[in-house]
Design the sequence.
């Protein structure tokens, strides 16, 4: 039984890049819409929760049992919602 990790293929790296790009677009769009301030608080919370679910779905195999959305991003979005509410 070998414990040597296998290196990712170019295809693996490309797929990972697509996932990251997709998540970055969704998070940036969500934060921009929330920051505009004309969204009801509940809608902003749901948008943030949806972005978090997407992150967890996209990277479930990388971080089993661990939320993929960084805590700093969650705090930033929550602060934006408090200011806008």
Sequence:
């Amino acid at each position: 039984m070998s414990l040597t990790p296998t290196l990712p293929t170019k295809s693996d790296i490309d797929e990972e890049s697509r996932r990251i790009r997709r998540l970055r677009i969704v998070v940036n769009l969500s934060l921009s819409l929330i920051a505009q301030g004309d969204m009801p608080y509940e809608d902003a919370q749901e948008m943030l929760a949806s972005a978090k679910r997407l992150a967890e779905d996209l990277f479930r195999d990388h971080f089993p049992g661990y939320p993929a959305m960084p805590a700093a991003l969650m705090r930033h979005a929550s602060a934006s919602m408090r200011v806008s509410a």
